Amino acid sequence: MATVLNAAWEDRATAPPPASRLPAGRLLAFSAIALPVTAAQMPLNVYLPAIFAQHYGVPLAVLGTIFLIEKIWGAIADPIIGSLSDRTRSRFGRRRSWIAAGGILFGLSGLLLFFPLAGVTPLYLGLVLFAFYLGWSMIQIPFLAWSGEISGDYNERTRIATYQVVVGSASLLLVLVLPTIVDQIRPGDGPLKLGVMGGLLLITLVPSLILTLRAFPEPPLPARDVPRLPFGQTVRLVGGNPLLMRILASDFAVTLGQNIRGTLFVFFVSSYMGLPHWASGLFLLQFVFGITAGPIWMRIGYRLGKHRTAVLGELVQVAINLGLLLVVPGQLGLLIALTVAQGFAQGSGNLMLRSMVADVADRHRLDTGEDRTALFFSVFSISMKAAMAAAVGVALPLVAWLGFDPTSAENTPEALRGLLLVFALGPAIAHLVSAALVHGFPLDAAAHAEIRKSLDQRDAAPAALND
Fold it and tell me: What InterPro entries does this protein map onto (predicted)?
């Protein structure tokens, strides 16, 4: 399978030179942890709010507040874990020990989240989400940092990120197949749908952890310890890096747009379109085509550069979301076409922006002599989680304010029109902002090659002196 994927994905004229390419099979193994971690993303952003509101009686406004607070907590935990991971000196490695411990917490809290005890209360949901997001951060931040460290090549980093995006897309496909089957067998059974999605996450967690932790050796520890910074200095360090801030702001915008769409998708298809039995199927269709999107955007990135490819992908998504304004209730043709197009476009901005973070971390290491890769990826993750929180915490109350009630058998035409406008215009505006923020990014392939050359020369100097 790895050989087939490798042959299908890579454009030999534009891919990294053979000497710098990592083995495809090992990259797939390294990316395995993206399967359970990404499998949790879709239920959290799409299904859990609706299921806990409709089947467990948690009020919509309370639910939005809980998810908002918990995702803000996850964003706070990220830089703490990033800084600790950068400073960790263990015989198990800076990254491995955190990923393994996070996997245990992630699995235990996931069991309570996807198989909730009888009589779910807001307190129960809040505590379980608190532990779940902490475990998620303990896996994700060190893993992203490790991803940026296994290669210093500009285009190879795009390839590494592509493998992770494709594994993640395959995971989303799997997690969508299961609720689609449930919809056909037992329509409206939210707890069963929740259980099968949680089962996928828990079954894949242990083997994925083993594959990821054994795929590559960790790079040597830095020659000197990374100094601990007080919170204020950390904020100034991040806020004073204009390249990193542009990436963060652009990622916030693109993730906000994606999650406004994801949060409202079930409501849109069920209530506005009047086709509740199509909700899971359309999401499934989107991610079937999304599996092929990563390799396509990787090749475009080789030719255009990362920031230009990100701009192109975001503008494509602007057009797709504006097209939703033309969708007519009960008529599937245009909605299916836009869903397929969304599948091809999905992840384009996320893929390029994630790869760019490691390049900016290289620039910081050249300027300061300090390796803060995990810290940089942690604040990148903050932008993602903050955008998720904003999408749920703003989109749900906004459509409720416009009169939409997910428990009502019949919403007014005005309420449904408000749902359509938020569903279509919210993502379109967000993707446009994302494109504007990353346009003209100065750290391209040529600039990064000079940075890596200087880093390699500086890293080789102590070794030459010792010889």
Answer: MFS_2 (IPR039672), MFS_trans_sf (IPR036259)
